[in-house]
Amino acid sequence: MKEVILYTDGACSGNPGPGGWGAVLFYGEHRLELSGGEAHTTNNRMELLSVIEALAKLKEPCQVKVHSDSAYLVNCFQQGWYRGWLKNGWLNSKKQPVENQDLWKRLLALKDIHRLEFVKVKGHADDKWNNRCDELAVAAAKAAAAGGSAGVK
Q: What does the pLDDT look like over 33-80, one tens digit per residue?
């Protein structure tokens, strides 16, 4: 299985508001930068979409180390929240519908293809690639706010 390193980030101007996501994939000497945005979204949706869109670019099952500053994303996998959601019919611990189910379901389907390891990084600190993802996400959010195309690069 190929080993891939993935850095991701999401951004939102207002929450909800215009948002963007950024991702950087590494495989050996290769690097791929991706970004996209939506005119009306939330930060958590952009965090999830950054991982989904990047994993969707992989052409075969891979071992992927995902670096993210999103506790929402990382804790779900490190603490196994999704297992409880599946067991409880997509209800959270408060017996309310899990937010962003559409994206969680897409991400869990990708998890079944790839072997994922999630690593929490400190946001807006000295992590070069997390900072690069933030730049991509913020630019995509600005483009989405302006009505421009903020599609996948």
A: 999 999 999 999 999 999 999 999 999 999 999 999 999 999 999 999
Coil, strand or helix: which one is 106? helix
**Superfamily of domain 2-145 in the CATH hierarchy:** Ribonuclease H-like superfamily/Ribonuclease H (3.30.420.10)
The angle, 0 to 180 degrees and rounded to 10, between the axes of the packed helices 71-78 and 43-56 is 60
The CA-to-CA distance between both ends of the chain, in Å, stands at 25
**Per-domain residue ranges of the chain:** 2-145
pTM summary value: 0.93
Catalytic residue flag (residue 134): yes
Classify the C-alpha dihedral 35-36-42-47 as positive or negative.
negative
Catalytic hit among 19, 47, 53, 114: 47
Q: What is the DSSP letter of 122?
A: -
Cis ω before 16 (30° cut-off from 0): yes
- Kindly report the backbone phi and psi dihedral angles of residue 54, in degrees, each rounded to the nearest multiple of 5, phi listed first: -70, -45
Q: Residue 11, CB half-sphere, CA atoms under 13 Å: how many?
A: 27
Clarify whether 114 is annotated catalytic.
no
